[in-house]
């Protein structure tokens, strides 16, 4: 192992998508914007799923959810296959010291992850209890991270996964799911910019204004960590990766394969390996992040990963751009099987279950924003095929799957999506997929006992 290998800080949070100033959102995020200005910002980075555990599983394994086994939420009895390796395990084998701070949410068994040091308790699910909320808030996780950096009690190089609770909704006493505006510095609803894919209604503005407070908490945490890296002299030796797993917890975003549901931030910064403030427009997927990091760190990249390295984009070298990215959903708080393909111009979505038009996860359904639209979105039945011309209709409101002029395109993308499902051995091709833990939940009692 080369002594010149950098430390790696992988910082991630919940339900944020690209709702950041550096991605054009009307919210002040000066510290994250500064990270983008110093590093490289990927403008079209997407998660493999519009939900937490499956997308995070892809980030950590380099494989799609239906390949690594994590087709639903970790606290919903879904787990990675036993033989799956994750990023800290690859790096530990290369001599890295591995640390877990805050949330992870890809398994109920933290020991399964193989971290050498686990610095936070209750690091699975953000909605378990108020105490877990408190431990995993950005401020508190950052307190632990900065203390770790200041003490310098590690054998470099180290890998640290830093997970923040924000901006996850929380169930309140009245059954509403909100952003705990009493604990964060919320903005005024009249001052926020409406979302382009939702109607401009008071409840949506209220939720956005409250969410801003959590966004500010994340931004403050990033600023503190970066300042600590500078003060401890570690800034030149540390590769910082900031990313999110899927879109914000609003209708037509989280829980859907529309762009607001699968869009994710990705910023990579290192003085030598990823710098200059470049904006990268190529399509990339979070299934590509693991092979890219292994490539950058000169760790052998397994040939059987689904993702592909985009390390040349960090170096500014020639790169054969992706022609398409894929996204999927199978289980969340209900069965909702979807597979999708997105190209430069088009999005094709195949729905495999007869459900309402736009699926609203429980936390979105019971939010102020959800109440504003759920009668319109949750009542009509969805089509089995959706096709969107992203150049003509970037908000994905006009389904052109049945328009004759798009018939050839629909057939082509349907075939490409099917080929991808066959190539990756998608179990959905064999029929409906039972819930996580089905075999143990439905097993007959042992007659011997």
Automatic annotation (TrEMBL):
The protein's superkingdom reads: Archaea
The record's family statement is: Belongs to the sulfatase family.
Native source organism of the sequence: Halovivax cerinus
| A GO term, aspect molecular function | hydrolase activity
Q: Please state what the protein is called.
A: Sulfatase
Q: Which residues form the Sulfatase N-terminal domain?
A: 6-299
Q: Does the keyword Hydrolase apply?
A: yes
**PANTHER family per the record?**
ARYLSULFATASE FAMILY MEMBER, ENDO-4-O-SULFATASE
Arranged from A to Z, the UniProt key words for this protein are: Hydrolase
């Amino acid at each position: 192992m080369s002594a010149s290998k950098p430390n790696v800080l992988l910082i991630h949070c919940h339900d944020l998508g690209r709702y950041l100033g550096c991605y054009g959102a009307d919210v002040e995020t000066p510290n994250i914007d500064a990270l983008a200005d110093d590093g490289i910002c990927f403008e079209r980075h997407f998660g493999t799923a519009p939900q937490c555990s499956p997308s995070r599983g892809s980030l950590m394994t380099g494989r799609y959810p239906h390949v690594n086994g994590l087709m639903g939420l970790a606290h919903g009895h879904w787990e990675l296959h036993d033989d799956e390796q994750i990023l800290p395990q690859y790096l530990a084998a290369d001599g890295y010291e591995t640390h877990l701070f805050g949330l992870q949410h890809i398994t109920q068994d933290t020991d399964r992850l193989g971290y050498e040091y686990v610095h936070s308790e209750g690091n699975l699910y953000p909605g378990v209890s108020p105490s877990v909320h408190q431990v995993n808030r950005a401020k508190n996780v950052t307190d632990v991270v900065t203390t770790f950096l200041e003490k310098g009690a590690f054998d470099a190089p180290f890998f640290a996964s830093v997970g923040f609770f924000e901006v996850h909704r929380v169930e309140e006493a009245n059954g509403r799911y909100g952003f705990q505006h009493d604990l964060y510095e919320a903005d005024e609803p009249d001052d926020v910019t409406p979302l382009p894919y939702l109607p401009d209604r008071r409840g949506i503005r209220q939720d956005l204004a409250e969410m801003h407070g959590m966004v500010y908490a994340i931004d403050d945490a990033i600023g503190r960590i970066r300042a600590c890296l500078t003060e401890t002299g570690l800034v030149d030796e540390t590769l910082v990766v900031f990313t999110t797993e899927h879109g914000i917890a609003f209708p037509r975003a989280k829980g859907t394969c529309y762009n607001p549901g699968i869009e994710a931030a990705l910023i990579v910064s290192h003085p030598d390996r990823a710098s200059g403030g470049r904006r990268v427009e190529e399509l990339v997927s979070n299934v590509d992040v693991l092979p890219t990091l292994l490539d950058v760190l000169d760790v052998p990249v397994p040939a059987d990963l689904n993702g592909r390295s985009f390390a040349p984009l960090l170096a500014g070298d020639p790169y054969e751009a992706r022609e398409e990215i894929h996204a999927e959903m199978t289980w969340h708080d209900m069965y909702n099987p979807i597979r999708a393909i997105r190209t430069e111009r088009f999005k094709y979505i195949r729905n495999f279950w007869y459900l309402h038009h736009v699926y609203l996860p429980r936390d979105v359904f019971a939010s102020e924003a959800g109440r504003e639209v759920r009668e319109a979105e949750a009542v009509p039945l969805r089509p089995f095929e959706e096709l969107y011309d992203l150049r003509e209709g970037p908000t994905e409101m006009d389904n052109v799957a049945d328009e004759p002029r798009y018939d050839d395109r629909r057939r082509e993308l349907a075939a490409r999506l099917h080929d991808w499902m066959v190539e990756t051995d998608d179990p959905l091709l064999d029929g409906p997929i039972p819930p996580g833990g089905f075999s143990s939940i439905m097993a007959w009692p042992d007659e011997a006992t």
